[in-house]
Amino acid sequence: MATAAVTSSKQTVLQCAGTGPSMSARIHPVVLFNICDSYVRRPDQAGRVIGTLLGSASPDGTVEIKNSYVVPHNESADQVALDIDYHHNMFVSHQKVNPKEAIVGWFSTGFGVSGGSSLIHEFYSREVQNPIHLTVDTGFTNGEASIKAYVSVTLTLGDRQLAAHFQEIPIDLRLLEAERVGFDMLKNTSVDKIPNDLEGMESTMERLSTLINDVYKYVDDVVEGRVEGDNNIGRFIADALASLPKLSPAAFDKVFNDRIQDNLALVYLSSLTRTQLSIAEKLNTAAQIL
Amino acid sequence: MANQTTGRSFLQAMTSVEEVAPPVRVVQMEGLAVLKIIKHCKEFSPALVTGQLLGLDVGSVLEVTNCFPFPTREEDEELEADGANYQLEMMRCLREVNVDNNTVGWYQSTLLGSFQTAELIETFMNYQENIRRCVCIIYDPSRSNQGVLALKALRLSDSFMELYRSNNFNGEKLREKKLSWADVFEEIPIKVSNSALISAFMTELEPDSPVSQCDFDRLKLSSAPFMERNLEFLIECMDDLTAEQNKFQYYYRNLSRQQAQQQGWLQKRRQENMVRKAAGEEPLPEEDPANPIFKPIPEPSRLDSYLITNQISNYCNQINGASGQGFSKLYLMKALHEN
After folding, report:
1. Are residues B50 and B116 in the same domain?
2. What is the DSSP letter of A8?
3. Which of A34, A186, A248, A258 should we substitute to test contact with B (largest number of B Cβ atoms within 10 Å)?
4. How far apart are alpha carbons B23 and B135 in whole angstroms?
5. Mutation test of the interface with chain B: which of A27, A66, A201, choosing the one with the most B Cβ atoms within 10 A?
6. Residue B230 domain flag
7. Ranked by mean pLDDT, which of A152-166, A200-214, B209-223, B281-295 comes out on top?
8. Calpha distance A106→A97 (Å, rounded)
9. Is the pLDDT at B155 greater than 70, yes or no?
10. Cβ contact B194–A187 (<8 Å)
11. pLDDT tens for residues B90-115?
């Protein structure tokens, strides 16, 4: 990364300090939710909210952002006042709950890096080496949700520090944790009910059946020559089919029936237990003391 | 003076309003609170953790808009005071950034739904003293691996609380109130809501993907470990329940023995009195409080057996739910194989 440009005949060199190993960030959904919530709850007339990011950095350069909290601040034309006491108090409190989460950087709402950012970044550089700056565009400036992460690279001229340059780093937005909860719950503004075991199963099966239908349609199209076959997709389909264990029908029937029997036994047992409970209750509360 | 009267009538109006406050029908949780709870519970699983819920109480809807975790509790006086400080500090800090600063209950994680304990009830009563309408959110991280969002909102039923306060769990009282074990806890339906902003972000970031991790988890064929744990817990509970039943049998046996003794004593006393009457003497009283056989035997509390019964029914529900899923998965498998 270290780029050098000779600016004069003397040995003064303009250079960007290298960032070392390539960095990337992974963001947990709770962070995004927290940032959006705090933006909704920002004080009157505040243009943006900023706050601290907590998480952990692994040696290979990936930074996991697991938690966050807002820090109140005041911004005027050329200066930024951050409530440092608040920041420290909150950090101490978070440490009590989960000592493994350290400061990894800071976030701000808004599109891209703005004027006061370098000042705040400098402050966070004192808290942690090479902090990450996360921006979440709550205004949808370009009509899309842009979430970006930056690290700062200092630009030096000889020994003199000239400026800080924010360099964008890749960010992983797959939100696996949210997948487990179910996007339907998190995407809509209101969900009336949490699905129970069987309802969840039903929707999953529906999705599976549409997937199978899609595959059928694709294969048919390819066979009939309507669509040109893609080898990669073909291999995926072959893999999926091969992952089904090859069992003789008799063997499969046996396995299947055994499992059904097991399940039936369990249901029987639990119904028996319930019956017992209701009998016991009747007897216990109806027992008259003479 | 006029001011004072209006003030008082306002106060009176307030109290009367509070008295007729409708019971909580729905708990409305923000996605943020849901995710925070899940994160906290999951990171510390299998250790059990708790935290506080913040939100608003609006009519029959209790809104949970935020929450914060408690540090893992340790049995130490000093640390306990520390915990209280932490709580105050956290509330103060959150208020500063405009988070709803109103405790509406607490959340806790559980293992396979084994949450119906005497401690839970105690905590609930403590909360109830300060907040009239509070709720307890239970999250089970062990079940999320099966693609289930095991989130429950609970409260104690009013009749149970009344009984708990009077600390009187004998058979007679329970019959009078018609309180069965199923009436100890009330489950409140949970609604999930998100701000429009977050909804926009999520829709943008996650276009409708055909499958998600949740689906994979649900379609996993192996449910044996879950079932085994469940059955183990069920058996343990059954043993506990038998122990409780034995306690009652012992009590009833003692009671009938005592009653027989009392009858015997009374008969003897009556005969004696008849003799005295014939002799023209004053009859002796037909009761003798000093006699040990008149000392009432305390009836054991039924609270424990109620809680255990609740546990058992919970395990039964879980087993039924899981085997229901198992059936559908198996038939799905069969259909796939036949194709």
Report:
1. yes
2. S
3. A186
4. 11
5. A201
6. no
7. A200-214
8. 20
9. yes
10. yes
11. 888 888 888 888 888 888 888 877 78
A29, pLDDT greater than 50: yes
Partner residue facing B330 (CB), from A193, A259, A280: A259
3-state DSSP percent of chain A in helix, strand and coil, to 5: 45, 25, 30
Does A7 have pLDDT greater than 50? Answer: no
pLDDT tens by residue, B302-318:
788 888 888 888 888 88
**A182 with B234: Cβ contact below 8 A:** no
- Left (φ > 0), alpha (ψ -120 to 50) or beta: where does A132 sit? beta
CATH 3.40.140.10 fits A4-178, yes or no: yes
Interface test mutation site (partner A, options B78, B89, B206, B247, max chain A beta carbons within 10 A): B206
Residue type, B223: S
Q: What is the ipTM of this complex?
A: 0.78
| Paired sense of beta strands A102-109 and A132-136, if any | parallel
Percent of chain A with pLDDT over 90: 0
CATH of the domain at B79: 3.40.140.10
Residues B112 and B211 occupy one common structural domain: yes
Structurally, chain B folds into a number of domains equal to: 2
Looking at CA atoms only, how far is residue B41 from chain A in angstroms? 12
pLDDT at residue A182, as a whole number: 65
| Residue with token string 């960007």 | A16
CA distance B134 to chain A (A): 20
* A25 vs B130: CA distance, rounded Å: 43
Question: Which chain A residues have a beta carbon less than 8 Å from that of B98?
Answer: 41-43
Residue B57 lies in a domain: yes
Q: Which of B189, B256, B319 is opposite residue A193, by nearest beta carbon?
A: B189
**Partner residue facing A86 (CB), from B93, B317, B319:** B93
Boundaries of domain holding B283: 235-338
Examine residue B68 and state whether it is found in any structural domain, yes or no: yes
Lowest-pLDDT range of A246-255, B72-81, B197-206: B72-81
Q: Given an 8 Å threshold on Cβ–Cβ distance, is A210 in contact with B210?
A: yes
Both B285 and B212 in one domain: the answer is no
Is there a single domain that holds both residue B300 and residue B213?
no
Tokens of A250: 């008799």
Closest-approach residue (CA) in chain A for B139 = A181
Among the partner residues A69, A211, A281, nearest to B180 by beta-carbon distance: A281
Q: Same domain, yes or no, for B253 and B284?
A: yes
**A194:B190 CB<8 A:** yes
Confidence tier at A8 by pLDDT (50, 70, 90) = very low
Q: Are residues B132 and B201 in the same domain?
A: yes
The span from the CA of A213 to the CA of A5, in Å, is 59
Q: What is the pLDDT of residues A105-123, one digit of tens each?
A: 888 888 877 777 888 888 8
Q: Residue B58 falls within a domain, yes or no?
A: yes
**Distance between A13 CA and the closest CA of chain B, angstroms:** 42
Q: Are residues B57 and B206 in the same domain?
A: yes
Cross-chain Cβ contact B97/A198 below 8 Å: no
Overall average pLDDT of the B171-199 stretch: 79
Render pLDDT for A206-238 as a digit per residue (tens, 0 to 9): 888 888 888 888 888 888 888 887 888 888 888
CB A175, CB B206: distance < 8 Å: yes
Same domain flag for B275 and B212: no
